[in-house]
């Protein structure tokens, strides 16, 4: 172990320990189960705050832990965080206890629910801290299975279809990615992200893949080239992450999964699981496949544009509250992808191109964190009203501002945060993406602004339908938010205002890693 | 008059266009093509699963019939070639 105290292992495995502790508690002791779950997630939060406080972005990867794990495959247990991952670890640590609190009144299968939730948290931490593919992949899959059951058991009417679809989509992507990494391992003999990144940065990766392919060609009579094989591997890995983000047209599992998932499941799904996909683009795709991304830049830019614009238009056509918020996630993740793909674009005529690319990529990082906060808040708000009305049909609401003023206020702030109102967190990320992308990929950036306008329209019309207009008399006796619900909302609002006013809270942590990544990427591009 | 007829009229037509596009994105793009494609793909897999299950019925007579048919085809191909 390189680190004196294995913080990251503790962060990752405390929820797992909590999950197994829950198994020891009697099924009827529901309160104890909930307290154990919350405590386990709070311990991870406290440890994450210690890591956050001790993190020095200039040091690169910190809090590393490395020891041999599977010698035959040259697989190490290798953990570490840099500016890209530490923000995601923090996001996971913040959102999970809030999602658990959102289910404090749960009565159905309490033990299994909280057990699965902690398992899920452990998986998410593992993904953001692992520096070895095998280790990372185990946690990637660990996040898939609990979420499947959370949707399947605690979901709404169409839960079977939604959970099945979620599983099939994600598994298809995972398999494609696994095969791609299997090939990389055959060529390089390592699963370590940092070693693979180094090989890609020095231009040796394509050569090694080419050497392996030559061997296969001689044995099979095929005529594959190293570069051609790298393109195949790129698309395999791309598919895995594109489904998770999700990028248009791999996105339709998301509205179904969100609509059917329980509130906490939706919060975590939107806030963290989608970020695992975007994180994959930062940790794996950009460092290893920069040349392939650059070669397919226009297609990838179109997909980002389609996620932004088609996602926004599709959200506008929704009549289901939760589905609308789900489509807004597709739209918001599209902005992050626009920022990420900008990094590989060539810009010979742009002055200080590094600065613009850093703005775009820092914007994408901010967008990931900010969307995590605002989407969790919006899904929580949907859950609050669904718990009271048992409907998600937007046309059945109306005028709730009169009887639920706190709810209307919190929904309004969350909506404005998602919309990107200056002063709130959503604005900073989107502004930086557009600021960085415009000088480099002006055409795509201009086209993507259509999405900004439509985002405003669908979010404002959602607010109008829920909180304004005449009150539906069916809901005249609805109680406003409880103290617990206000607390959850207030914590999320705190981050909305906090990051909106002081975004350097995140950018000062991510900037060095972002600049390092851009240098690696531009170094291998022709 | 200009405000009501021209400016508001233009605004309302933009609203109709935006709403139209959003319905197309939802129903044609997502529901028909993407979801329809996914559902059809799943249905095909299920259907082919059923077909494979029928082929692997465990009835030895059926297996021999397939073997016999295969042998005849191979013989025909062999004689035609020679």
Shape call of chain B:
rod-shaped
Q: Helical percent range of chain B?
A: over 70%
Number of strands of chain B: 0
- Give the amount of beta strand of chain B, in percent: under 5%
Radius of gyration computed on alpha carbons of chain B: 30 Å
> Approximately how much helix is present in the residues of chain A?
over 70%
Strand order of the largest sheet of chain A: 1-2
Quaternary class = heterodimer
What would you say this structure looks like, in words?
The complex is a heterodimer of chains A (526) and B (82). By secondary structure, chain A is mainly alpha-helical. Chain A has a domain at 296-526. Chain A has 20 helices and two strands. Chain A has helices at 7-24, 30-54, 83-102, 110-129, 133-154, 159-188, 193-201, 204-220, 226-244, 253-260, 263-295, 297-316, 321-342, 353-389, 400-403, 405-419, 425-437, 442-467, 483-501, 504-524, and strands at 62-70, 75-81. Chain A has a two-stranded antiparallel ribbon. In chain A, α6 (159-188) crosses α8, α10 crosses α13 (321-342) and α13 runs antiparallel to α14 (353-389). The longest helix of chain A has 37 residues, at 353-389. Chain A is globular. Chain B is mainly alpha-helical. Chain B has one domain. In chain B, 93% of the residues lie in helices and 0% in strands. The longest helix of chain B is centred in the middle third of the chain and has 54 residues, at 2-55. Chain B starts with a helix and ends with a helix. The mean pLDDT of chain B is 88. Chain A binds chain B through residues 165, 168-169, 249, 251-252, 255, 310, 313-318, 454, 457-458, and chain B through 18-19, 21-27, 29-30, 33-35, 38, 42.
């Amino acid at each position: 172990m390189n680190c004196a105290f294995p913080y990251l292992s503790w962060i990752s495995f405390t929820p797992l320990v909590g999950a197994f502790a829950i198994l020891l508690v009697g099924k009827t002791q529901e309160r104890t189960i909930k307290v154990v779950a919350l405590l386990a997630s709070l311990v991870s939060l406290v440890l994450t705050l210690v890591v956050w406080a001790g993190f020095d972005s200039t040091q690169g990867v910190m809090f590393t832990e490395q020891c041999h794990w599977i010698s035959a495959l040259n697989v190490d247990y290798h953990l570490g965080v840099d500016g890209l991952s530490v923000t995601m670890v923090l996001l996971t640590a913040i959102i999970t206890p809030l999602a658990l609190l959102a289910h404090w009144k749960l009565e159905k299968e309490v033990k299994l629910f909280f057990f699965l939730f902690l398992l899920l948290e452990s998986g998410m931490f593992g993904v953001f801290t692992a520096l070895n593919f095998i280790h990372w992949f185990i946690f990637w899959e660990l996040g898939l299975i609990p979420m499947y059951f959370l949707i399947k058991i605690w979901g709404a009417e169409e839960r079977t279809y939604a959970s099945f679809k979620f599983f099939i989509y994600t598994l298809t992507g995972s398999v494609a990615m696994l095969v791609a990494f299997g090939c990389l391992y055959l060529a390089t003999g390592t699963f370590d992200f940092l070693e693979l990144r180094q090989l890609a940065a020095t231009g040796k990766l394509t050569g090694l893949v080419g050497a392996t392919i030559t061997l296969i060609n001689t044995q099979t009579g095929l005529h594959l080239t190293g570069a051609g094989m790298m393109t195949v591997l790129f698309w395999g890995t791309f598919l895995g992450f594109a489904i998770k983000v999700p990028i248009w047209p791999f996105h339709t599992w998301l509205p179904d999964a969100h609509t059917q998932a329980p509130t906490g499941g939706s919060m975590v799904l939107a806030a963290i699981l989608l970020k695992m996909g975007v994180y994959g683009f930062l940790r794996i795709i950009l460092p290893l496949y920069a040349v392939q991304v650059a070669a397919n830049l226009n297609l990838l830019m179109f997909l980002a544009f389609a996620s932004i614009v088609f996602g926004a238009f599709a959200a506008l056509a929704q009549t289901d509250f939760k589905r609308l918020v789900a489509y807004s996630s597709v739209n918001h993740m599209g902005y992050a992808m626009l920022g990420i793909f900008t990094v590989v674009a060539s810009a010979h005529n742009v002055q200080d191109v590094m600065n613009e690319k850093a703005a775009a990529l820092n914007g994408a990082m901010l967008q990931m964190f900010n969307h995590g906060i605002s989407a969790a808040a919006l899904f929580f708000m949907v859950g609050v009203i669904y718990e009271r009305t048992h409907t998600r049909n937007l046309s059945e609401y109306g005028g709730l501002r009169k009887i639920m003023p706190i709810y209307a206020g919190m929904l309004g702030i969350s909506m404005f945060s998602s919309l990107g109102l200056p002063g709130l967190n959503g604005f900073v990320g989107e502004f930086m993406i557009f600021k960085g992308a415009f000088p480099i990929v002006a055409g795509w950036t201009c086209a993507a602004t259509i999405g900004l306008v439509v985002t405003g329209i669908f979010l404002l019309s959602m607010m109008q339908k829920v909180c304004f207009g005449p009150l539906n008399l069916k809901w005249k006796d609805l109680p406003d938010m409880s103290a617990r619900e206000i607390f959850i909302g207030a914590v999320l609002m705190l981050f909305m205002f906090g990051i909106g006013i002081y975004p350097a809270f995140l950018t000062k942590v991510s900037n060095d890693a972002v600049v390092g990544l851009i240098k690696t990427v531009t170094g291998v591009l022709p | 008059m200009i405000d009501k007829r021209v400016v508001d009229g233009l605004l309302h037509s933009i609203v109709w266009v935006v709403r139209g596009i959003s319905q197309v994105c939802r129903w044609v793009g997502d529901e028909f093509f993407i979801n329809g494609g996914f559902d059809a793909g799943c249905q095909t897999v299920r259907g082919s699963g059923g077909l494979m299950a029928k082929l692997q019925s465990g009835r030895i007579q059926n297996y021999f019939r397939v073997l016999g048919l295969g042998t005849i085809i191979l013989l025909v191909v062999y004689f035609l070639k020679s």
